[in-house]
């Protein structure tokens, strides 16, 4: 019996398409219980990296290590992975159940699992409906069903949020949580960083075929050191506001300070956040409430990308 | 064939039996073939005199069309639906994917041919049935050759619409215009082209090979000679070789192309 897949490690991976170098010496480790997102602009190498892991492209240099052993993408690894392609469509004249049954047969999965998966992705009611009649979100859910059908150790999702409604997103989040809890591995390419940031463990930023940043969202936020937005709800916008705005400007260090009705918003560098919040304590009577907004992962991404280029 | 390829054969067959174009053309073929057979029965014609040649003409028009339609989206359809990568991410070799797609579609084609010729045999008089049954295998070979060409075209292009246009063009070229072209060649050269050259040119086209073989079988060489068709069919070994080449070469080329072509 093959031991369970615990780590995947890409070492110095390079891929060429003719003269075009799609990946340049990528080092990346994916561990059990981890959800890692691949982010980057179009042409950054995300799809090529995924294609490599699916065995669709050959590397020009570098190697893949599975649980510490140099292995490459072989049938053993393929049996252990589930994949959701971007904007997947499936044969229109088959129904959802027939689509899943094919993959169940191909992967040697028991037939009853098809119904479990249809229920899991919320498509049991449409199991006998032809894919032609499916909405984009339903097709995406069916694709997610195909990916999780064999309960693979490695789940590769390419733009999984595309077309999903709130209910569909909840299904996706529950799958991510289940895979993490079961100590499996998830690799996900996405542009919806704000949507996924609370559900991922690490982000790998690719640009020009190279890894520009690789860390947890918290650590990347620290690295980017983007201003934090603090909003004070004022008890009375006419009472002592000028003094408060003046004090806030002192903390903002050139960041935006805006007063809109009873809300004072201040953008401060992360290092000035605590002193600014202290101001709230000092001016307790003037301020009714305070809200702190950290920059979203999309802003961090933009900043890191700007720095990289 | 491994588990994935066998599952794919099953899936391809299932998918094709739900393809309305295939169903419509197969149904039409069955209807016309039954009509020919019933007409022959009512007029008490023998299979070799009229029914056989009529069915050969019908089959040589319909079967390549059904086969090309069946093959035209084999690979490009997966490519357009973004499922080619998903399919190839399964533990399966690329040549197995092509082979499974070919076999699954060939089974569907076999069903269509069986339906059409089966109906003709069913409605034929008892003495004609044995003669008509001889049509089945060569018709299957004809279909397999055109299916193979369809699969190859679907591997070469990146859009299904392009593939659909190409199969229609191929059908017109090989089934309709090819013989006209040969006639034109004879007219232009004032009949100076050697019969061997014409023979070769007829037999390198699977539709021509099928027609020649079947006409020879039903009408005999004397009748062909009498009609001024001085084309000698190739020997058995050459015939087997030609069919093998027409069926296997495009499928093998598809496998090679899929191996080398970038999967998007």
Q: Helix count of chain A, per DSSP?
A: 11
Fraction of helical residues of chain A = 25-40%
Tell me about the largest β-sheet of chain A.
6 strands, mixed
Span between N and C termini of chain A? Answer: 47 Å
The radius of gyration over CA of chain A amounts to 24 Å
Q: What number of domains of chain B?
A: 1
Helix-strand topology string of chain A: EEEHEEHEHHHEHEHEEHEHEEHEH
Radius of gyration of chain B, whole Å: 19 Å
Number of helices of chain B: 12
How would you describe what is shown here?
The complex is a heterodimer of chains A (309) and B (264). Chain A has helices at 46-54, 75-79, 96-107, 112-120, 136-148, 166-181, 193-196, 217-224, 241-252, 273-282, 297-308; strands at residues 7-17, 20-31, 34-39, 61-66, 69-70, 81-84, 154-158, 185-189, 202-207, 210-215, 228-234, 257-260, 263-268, 287-293. Chain A is of the alpha/beta class and 309 residues long. In chain A, α3 packs across α4 (112-120) and α8 (217-224) crosses α11. In chain A, the strands form three sheets. A six-stranded mixed β-sheet of chain A has the order 6-7-8-3-9-10, with helices on both faces. Chain A is globular, with a radius of gyration of 24 Å. Chain B is an all-alpha fold. Chain B is built from twelve helices and no strands. Chain B has helices at 3-16, 20-42, 47-71, 76-80, 84-88, 94-123, 126-133, 136-156, 160-188, 195-203, 206-226, 236-260. The chains are: A alpha/beta (309), B mainly alpha (264). At the A-B interface, α2 and α3 of A face α1 and α5 of B.
């Amino acid at each position: 019996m093959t031991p369970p897949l615990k780590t995947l490690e890409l070492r110095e991976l390079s891929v060429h398409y003719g003269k075009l170098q799609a990946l340049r010496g990528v080092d990346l480790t994916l561990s059990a219980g981890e959800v890692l997102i691949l982010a980057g602009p179009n042409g950054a190498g995300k799809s090529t990296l995924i294609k490599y892991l699916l065995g669709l492209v050959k590397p020009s240099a570098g190697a893949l290590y599975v649980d510490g052993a140099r292995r490459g993408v072989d049938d053993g690894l393929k049996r252990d992975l589930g994949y959701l392609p971007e904007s997947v469509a499936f044969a229109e004249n088959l129904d959802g159940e027939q689509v899943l049954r094919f993959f169940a047969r191909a992967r040697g999965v028991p037939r009853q699992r098809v119904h479990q998966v249809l229920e899991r992705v919320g498509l049991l009611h449409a199991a006998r409906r032809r894919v032609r009649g499916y909405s984009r979100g339903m097709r995406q859910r069916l694709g997610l069903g195909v990916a999780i059908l064999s309960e693979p150790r490695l789940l590769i999702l390419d733009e999984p949020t595309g077309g999903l409604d709130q209910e569909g997103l909840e299904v996706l989040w529950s799958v991510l949580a289940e895979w993490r809890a079961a100590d499996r591995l998830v690799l996900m390419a996405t542009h919806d960083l704000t949507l996924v940031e609370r559900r991922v463990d690490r982000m790998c930023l690719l640009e020009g075929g190279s890894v520009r940043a690789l860390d947890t969202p918290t650590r990347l936020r620290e690295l980017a050191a983007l201003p934090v937005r603090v909003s004070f709800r004022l008890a009375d916008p006419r009472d002592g506001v000028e003094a408060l705005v003046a004090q806030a400007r002192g903390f903002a260090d050139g960041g935006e300070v805006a007063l809109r009705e009873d809300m004072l918003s201040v953008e401060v560098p992360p290092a000035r956040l605590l002193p600014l919040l202290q101001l709230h304590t000092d001016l307790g009577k003037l301020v009714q409430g305070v809200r702190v907004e950290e920059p979203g992962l999309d802003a961090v991404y933009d900043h890191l990308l700007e720095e990289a280029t | 064939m491994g588990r994935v390829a066998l599952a794919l054969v099953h899936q391809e067959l299932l998918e094709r039996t739900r393809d309305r174009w295939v169903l419509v053309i197969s149904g039409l073929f069955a209807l016309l073939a039954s009509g020919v057979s019933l007409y022959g029965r009512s007029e008490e014609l023998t299979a070799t005199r009229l029914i056989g040649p009529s069915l050969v003409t019908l089959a040589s028009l319909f079967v390549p069309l059904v086969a090309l339609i069946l093959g035209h989206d084999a690979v490009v359809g997966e490519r357009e639906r973004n499922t080619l990568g998903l399919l190839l991410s399964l533990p399966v070799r690329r040549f197995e994917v092509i082979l499974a797609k070919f076999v699954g579609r060939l089974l569907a084609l076999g069903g269509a041919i069986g339906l059409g010729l089966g109906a003709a045999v069913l409605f034929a008089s008892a003495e004609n049935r044995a003669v008509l049954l001889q049509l089945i295998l060569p018709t299957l070979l004809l279909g397999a050759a055109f299916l193979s060409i369809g699969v190859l075209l679907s591997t070469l292009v990146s859009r299904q619409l392009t593939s659909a246009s190409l199969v229609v063009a191929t059908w017109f070229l090989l089934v309709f215009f090819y013989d006209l072209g040969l006639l034109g060649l004879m007219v232009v050269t004032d009949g100076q082209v050697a019969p061997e050259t014409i023979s070769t040119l007829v037999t390198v086209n699977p539709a021509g090979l099928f027609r020649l073989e079947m006409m020879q079988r039903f009408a005999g060489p004397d009748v062909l000679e009498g009609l001024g068709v001085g084309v000698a069919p190739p020997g058995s070994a050459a015939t087997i070789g030609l069919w093998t080449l027409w069926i296997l070469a495009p499928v093998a080329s598809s496998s090679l192309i899929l191996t080398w072509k970038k999967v998007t």
